[in-house]
Amino acid sequence: MRNKKPVSVMRYKTLCLLGAAFALSVAEASMAQSRNVYIPDPEQENRLAIQPGEIEQGTLDAPTAYDAGIIDIRSGGLDPNLWQGTSAPRAVELIQNAPVHTADPLVKDMVNAVLLSSGIPPEGDGEALKRYNVAKLEAITASADISVLESQINRSGASVRTPVFQAELALRKGETAKACSLSDTITEGRADVFWSRLRTLCHLQREEFSAAELTTELLRNEGYENDLYYDLVRVLSGVTKAMPVPESNADPINQTLYRMAATALNAARPGQAFDPKADPELRLSALLRFLDQFSKTQIEQVFSDLAFNPNDLEGSSSFDLESALTNNSAQGVAQLFLLAKTRGNPQSAVPAFSALMKRIGDDKSRKRLTEIFAENIQSWPADIKAQTNLAYFARHSVRHKDVLGLQNLYAALPESQERDRIALAADALGNGFMVGQLGGDIDRRLTSEKNERAIRDAFLGLALGAQISETALNILPQSKIQSVSKISEGDKAVLKANAKARHTAQFLLRLTPILESAYSETGELSTPDIAFIIEQLQIIGLKDFANRIAARDFLVPLE
Questions:
Q1: Pairwise CA distance, residues 229 & 253, whole Å
Q2: How far apart (Å, rounded) are the C-alpha atoms in residues 300 and 371?
Q3: Could you report the per-residue pLDDT of 143-160, keeping only the tens digit for each?
Q4: Per-residue buried b or exposed e for 450-476, using 16+ beta carbons within 10 Å of the residue's own CB
Q5: Other CB atoms closer than 10 Å to residue 417's CB: what's the count?
Q6: In degrees rounded to 5, what are phi and psi of residue 359?
Q7: Distance CA 457, CA 395 (A)
Q8: What's the pTM?
Q9: Which residues make Cβ contacts (< 8 Å) with residue 132, sequence separation at least 6?
Q10: Alpha carbon distance 405, 393 (integer Å)
Q11: Angle at 109 between CA 148 and CA 420, to 5 degrees
């Protein structure tokens, strides 16, 4: 491979610091923790209503000199001095602008590396550090699974919980009546945006529409902006039946309003996935929309139900890969799922899985299904994966830092351009360019008439530390690269300064919005931009991220 074998809105006024152990990896925790969908029970809601004296009052814990996360430099985290040279107010600003809801796994890992690493907090006095802790907590909880959240609270030993946090936790658990009962007891800070929004929710649930309208109008007049919130209030007030489609719905109040609105309009909601009387297409829609809320067992059960026609005689329903591929209904999607889960027949399982991924429209659902199929993907033969969907399985290996997976794909391919691209990705992911050769494949393509991709590959290899070849020395200085930079000169100057000073947290939180914008808009960065980013990642000591960015880019021609 490449002439050598690759090596391996708002910040709440008060929030409690739930303890250092709260900081866990959302990406890993979402795979490790079970998911259980909540289906509201009115009687249970009444039993869960707050009783007098039940509310725990408290204040934010005092900041400590060391934040102990669940990842450290030995387990994929950052250096303990990640916040050195950074003031607490600057840290708050950067955290609040971080793309915490990104669907891109690389960007997500970068953000989590900052939020979840053990280390010394930024510089500041007690109040400034409390605001930093609030911002950090809000960023972490934005995408935390409820079971993970509760587990970490219990493990942290924190005894104080603010009313805001108690209300949010109740909403995340589906205990709306409990949250509303708590809201009714609030006197101090009652006009705050959080409590005003929660009161609107409670008014709507109690069908107190005039009061809900008044509270909402007060929020508008105060300049509060939240389009999804206002759209959902309009639906629940009967003004419109146009159900909004949220780009991100991590806010617990908006989540609850969405569930209420979906129920009112008979739109897709979690419980419908399990309703045998519901239309199969609606069941599939509900399943996919709320896939991240369901456990693996629940997901498999719904797909199993949908795969068979209940009107058929028992045992008469049958399907195979050919029939499932031509069945464009919810039943066909479910049949592809079951075929992909079948062990012992990868010739059908791998094509079924590939087709299933193409049928599933959004990245969030595909990510959840990939988690469910993780063991299957690992066990499937490389030759079948390469023949079926080389680009997908190569990207999967890069995403999971699986150099061996790339090497197996390489070995399964005949000599070809595709094989060369797998080799480049494997070398990038496994540090194969560091102080190594640029590679005969790149040199050969540099001399061709159409050498744009070869020039980009050369830039990537050199940024990763490869030695420049005579061919590259002759061609690169005269190459004309037509590209539009996504990074301003000011941003470049700050990123370079951060990298040189080893201000790791600052660097990553400035870089991730740039990557998120580039990947979501065009799918890639310009050649000079990506080389610049890789070089700065190398300088600051984040070689793992540099390797992943390069490996990912080497695979782009396969798509």
A1: 8
A2: 13
A3: 555 544 554 454 443 433
A4: ebebbbbbbbbbbbbbbeebebbeebb
A5: 12
A6: -75, -30
A7: 17
A8: 0.73
A9: 63, 88, 91, 92, 95, 121, 122, 124
A10: 9
A11: 135
Nearest residue to 271 via CA among 296, 245, 290: 290
Instruction: For the chain, report the end-to-end CA distance as a whole number of angstroms.
Output: 21
CB atoms closer than 10 angstroms to residue 496: 16
Tens digits of per-residue pLDDT, 381-420?
A: 999 999 999 999 999 999 999 999 999 999 999 999 999 9
For 45, phi and psi rounded to 5 degrees?
-60, -40
271 CB neighbour count, 10 Å cutoff: 16
Fill in the amino acid letter for 118. S
How many Cβ atoms from other residues are within 10 Å of residue 183's Cβ?
A: 21
Cβ-based neighbours of 239, under 8 Å, separated by 6 or more: none
List the beta bridge partners of residue 467: 437
Distance CA 235, CA 239 (A): 6
- Cβ(70)–Cβ(140) below 8 Å: no
Task: Specify whether the backbone of 344 is left (phi greater than 0), alpha (psi in -120 to 50) or beta.
Answer: left
CA 97 to chain centre: 16
- Torsional class of 19: left (φ above 0), alpha (ψ -120 to 50), beta (otherwise): left
